[in-house]
Write a sequence for this structure.
């Protein structure tokens, strides 16, 4: 009869170890899934930031082309006669306004480029902080699953 108790105890021990292993595997799979989702969000944020930088670059190229055209018009008007002096002053004012826009866009891109590593680091830290918070919320729930007497709610 003593052998039966030892056999049952061994079987129960194997069953408990199997359950614990399966729970740990499920937890690791869940953690890996959330880690990959977080990494994907970070990469999407980086791609979005880089696409905004490309938009700035195309805006600068368009403004530079427009400034070149206006400079040519100013040169043509100034060489023609004095009656067009008012029009050339108006165009010169537009060129100055465009120059200030180009300067603003250039400084925005330089600022983005200069701080890109900081922005990427902040995005990664924020994502992994959120991931850590989710893990911290999940672990007590895991304990509640294995201990039905625990009072931790299973809903978000």
């Amino acid at each position: 009869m003593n052998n039966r108790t030892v056999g049952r105890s061994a079987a129960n021990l194997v069953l408990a170890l199997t359950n614990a292993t399966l729970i740990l595997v499920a937890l690791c799979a869940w953690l890996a899934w959330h880690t990959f989702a977080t990494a994907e969000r970070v990469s999407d944020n980086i791609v979005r930031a880089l696409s905004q930088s490309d938009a700035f670059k195309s805006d600068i190229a368009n403004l530079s082309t427009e400034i070149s055209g206006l400079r040519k018009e100013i040169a043509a008007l100034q060489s023609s006669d004095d009656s067009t002096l008012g029009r050339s002053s108006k165009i010169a004012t537009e060129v100055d306004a465009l120059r200030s826009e180009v300067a603003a866009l250039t400084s925005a891109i330089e600022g983005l480029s200069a701080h890109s590593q900081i922005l990427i680091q902040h995005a990664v830290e924020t994502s992994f902080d959120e991931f850590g918070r989710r893990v911290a919320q999940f672990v007590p729930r895991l304990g509640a699953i294995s201990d039905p007497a625990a009072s931790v709610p299973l809903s978000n």
